[in-house]
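Re: weekly structure request thread

Next one in the queue (70 aa):
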Amino acid sequence: MTEHLTWRKSSFSTGDGNGNECVELATLPDGGMAVRDSKQGRTSPILTFTPGEITAFVHAAKAGNFDTPA
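Done, posted below.
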């Protein structure tokens, strides 16, 4: 299922200077998302999330639920 996905990463990706320390995202056919570690590339384990899980995560992030306490 994941072999035909189009992976992308943020243009803000930083790390080793080669842009290799980042997460990569791919949209799944059902509207969900797949996530992997770019350092491991094709050998990285892939986490998948449903559209509802992605929506809940984005709403929570926008609400500041994951902000580090001062």
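Helices lie at 51-62. The chain has one domain: 1-62.
Next request, please.
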